Amino acid sequence: MARESETEDIVYNFVCSKPGMSTYELSKKLNMTGGRVRHALARLEEKGLIKFKFDRHNPRIRKLTFPVDNWSLIPRGLKKELKKLIKK
């Protein structure tokens, strides 16, 4: 179980530092198997920490990985309170 979260941490930190890479590129750069990276990315997407964009400019569609911005990770109620504090 610890290995799984460790892999997610490694993949997430790499995606944050170098966004816009495909799963294949990530697996080569991190020296991990494609399945291990795909599983970590799927779990990170479930948690709402990353999102995917599709590059359709080539005949082969590429699924690119990007981190979610920090503001969208904050709960709605807390955002409202923060906005009230900023206006004062």
Write the layout of secondary structure elements.
Elements: H1 2-17, E1 21-22, H2 23-30, H3 34-46, E2 50-55, E3 62-67, H4 70-73, H5 76-87
Antiparallel strand pairs: 1-3, 2-3
Written account of the structure:
With 88 residues, this protein is α+β, with helices and mostly antiparallel strands. 60% of the residues lie in helices and 16% in strands. The protein is built from 5 helices and 3 strands, in the order αβααββαα. The protein has helices spanning 2-17, 23-30, 34-46, 70-73, 76-87; strands at 21-22, 50-55, 62-67. The protein has a 3-stranded antiparallel beta sheet. A hairpin with a 6-residue loop joins strand 2 and strand 3. It is elongated and about 50 Å long. The protein starts with a helix and ends with a helix. 10% of the residues are buried.
Name a few traits of the molecule.
3 strands, 3-stranded antiparallel beta sheet, 88 residues
Q: Helix-strand pattern, N to C?
A: HEHHEEHH
State the major sheet. 3 strands, antiparallel
Strand content: 15-25%
Number of helices: 5
Q: Provide the residue-averaged pLDDT.
A: 88
In helices, the fraction of residues equals: 55-70%
Order of strands in the sheet with most strands: 1-3-2
Distance between the ends: 46 Å
Poorly predicted regions are none
Strand tally: 3
